[in-house]
Each structure stands twice: as C-alpha cells, then as structure tokens.
Amino acid sequence: MKFYDFKARKINGQEVNMEDFKGKIVVVVNTASKCGLTPQFKELEELYQGYKDKGVEILGFPCNQFAKQDSGSNEEIHEFCQLNYGVSFNMFEKIDVNGKNAHPLYQYLKNESKGLLSKEIKWNFTKFLIDDQGNVVKRYAPTVSPLKIKNDIEDILNK
User: InterPro entries per the record (predicted)?
Assistant: First the structure.
C-alpha cells in the first residue's frame, strides 16, 4: 500500500481519495481543540498560506484519544478551527490514530515512519511529511513547530 491508496472523510462527510493529492507535498497531522498545543493551528494555517500555491497541502485529523482533548462533534471542531484560527486547510472527520480502531491511513503512516522507541502516536499534533511522490519523508514530534517544517518542504520543492 502507498499513501495514495487510502481514503478519508472530510469534516463535512465528503470522501476524499489521497490520490487527489498526487504530485503535492502533504503534511498530515492529528489535531485537538483543547490541548496545550492547539495554538499550532495558527502555524499550520500560516504554513498552508505560505506554500499552498507551491503545491503543499495540510490534512488535519481531529483525534480524541489523548486526554479527551477533542470531545466535540465534527461540526463543533470545524467551527472552533475556523473561528479561532481561520483554518482553511483540509480538516477531516475525527478518527483514532492508535489501537485496533486506528484509521488505516494512520496505521500506514506509523509503519512507514516510526517514532522514538515506538511506532504509536504519543500525543496530539504529531506531524508526517509526505513528498510529491507519496513517500513518507519524516515524522515530527508534537512539540515541533509547524513552521520548523519549512526547510524540509523547501528541500522537496528544490530537488
């Protein structure tokens, strides 16, 4: 399986094929609305605005598995992200990223780029960078600022 073989539902219920992002650089991130790292939405949006015209997409996946920090409905999460952070990048329906009910996309991402000591997602705002060929290039810890990913995006754009 490759990144392009997966599907997910946007926060509005529309099914999206990851194949739709072929030829683009993609950042996949599990998000939460009530987390100390929630202000990263601002930086994710800044990253998206700065690079969307160069073929960069950000895919946000709300997750309630870490201290129940995203317990709202998909509609509430969507409204929160837009009102508080002006999020315009793609947000998807709430999913599990760990355990037996983990979304297949996240099962794939974790196998392709393991974290420190374990492949499991440790917290909200773990980020994965996928190149324009669909390869998982790098995994970033939750505390890594989205803006720190710029250099790695630039490296892919300039190759």
Answer: Glutathione_peroxidase, GPX_AS, GPX_CS, Thioredoxin-like_sf, Thioredoxin_domain
Element (H, E) at 17: strand 15-17
Considering the candidates 25, 28, 29, 35, report the single residue annotated as catalytic: 35
Q: Is the pTM of this model over 0.90?
A: yes
Find out if CATH 3.90.1640.10 is the number for domain 3-16+23-157.
no
Give the closest residue to 59 by CA, choosing from 46, 51, 67, 48. Answer: 48
Q: Is 35 a catalytic residue?
A: yes
